[in-house]
Amino acid sequence: MPLPKCEICDDDFSSEDGDHSPRNLKCCHTLCEGCIKKLLNYSRIVCPFCREPTEVPGNNIKSLHKNFSLIQVIKTTLVEEAEARIIPKCKAHPYNLAEFFCVNPDCSSNDKLMCRTCEDFGVHKGHAKYLLITRIENSGNSLQKAISDLQKKLRDIDQNVEELKKAQTLFNENGELFQKKKNQITNFYSKLREKVNEREKEALSELKDVARTARVNNTKSLLTLMQVRSIYDELISEAKELLKKTSATSFREVEAILNRSNAHIMSQEKIFEPNPFENIKVNIRPIEIPMASIEYCAKPSNSVPRSSGESDPYAAMKQLDVKLLRIIH
């Protein structure tokens, strides 16, 4: 069905606002806005068909009523033309549009498209169906949603690409993140070395103090032992001299020497032993490692959430942090 035309310019009327929008004159004849503009003369239009005048206050063409009946005809015609372009002809009845799609599970026909004649008299008589145009519209809506979802995914991918590029720059040896982590590691082990050196000095100093004390104690013990040894030597010499005597009076001297010897032996039951070097104990204090010098590498707060399977560009640096924390513990 052709679109209705303006009888003056012979252009198709339009359902949209503009020069081709249909406007009614007082006489009920309809012209397009473009022709009305040309015929407008001092706020008045004379109908080219019946010569009846129509007043247009202030030359405002919009004050003329639209021909809504004609606009509805235009819209219906456009829909029918669109359907005719989309919906194919029925193969069994080519003079009809295949407006329906057969959904009957027991249908034996290979061609599921059907027209009204097929529905009433043909192989699809009494079969369940749905409007083909509805299915096409639903498919179009589904495609639009799929396109929208894919476009959103593309935006996410683009953001991830930008983040990866940024991460590549940061991981470069001259990059900000690499240098930051390098400084953290250097500072950490520098402080660790300072602590180790400090504890080493403390331990060596304590070792010297312990050794000095041991030497003093050993010297005292040595002097005491030398004195005791001198007494023992004297007693041994006296005992040997008495062995050479055979007089009766010597027995009293022997008894006196034995008493002195026993007394010294009893008083010296605890033998003075030197303090062996391997028994020297040095108190080595534990090292307090500066935990705060290693920071965990978190990804930027504005990063795009990733679905399962997507790689984290900061994973390698996080693994390094974990290794460092293990070393600390």
From TrEMBL:
<keyword id="KW-0175">Coiled coil</keyword>
<dbReference type="InterPro" id="IPR001841">
    <property type="entry name" value="Znf_RING"/>
</dbReference>
<feature type="domain" description="RING-type">
    <location>
        <begin position="6"/>
        <end position="51"/>
    </location>
</feature>
<protein>
    <submittedName>
        <fullName>RING-type domain-containing protein</fullName>
    </submittedName>
</protein>
<dbReference type="GO" id="GO:0008270">
    <property type="term" value="F:zinc ion binding"/>
</dbReference>
<keyword id="KW-0863">Zinc-finger</keyword>
<dbReference type="InterPro" id="IPR000315">
    <property type="entry name" value="Znf_B-box"/>
</dbReference>
<dbReference type="InterPro" id="IPR017907">
    <property type="entry name" value="Znf_RING_CS"/>
</dbReference>
<feature type="coiled-coil region">
    <location>
        <begin position="140"/>
        <end position="167"/>
    </location>
</feature>
<keyword id="KW-0862">Zinc</keyword>
<feature type="coiled-coil region">
    <location>
        <begin position="197"/>
        <end position="245"/>
    </location>
</feature>
<dbReference type="InterPro" id="IPR052667">
    <property type="entry name" value="E3_ubiquitin-ligase_RING"/>
</dbReference>
<dbReference type="InterPro" id="IPR013083">
    <property type="entry name" value="Znf_RING/FYVE/PHD"/>
</dbReference>
<keyword id="KW-0479">Metal-binding</keyword>
<dbReference type="Pfam" id="PF13639">
    <property type="entry name" value="zf-RING_2"/>
</dbReference>
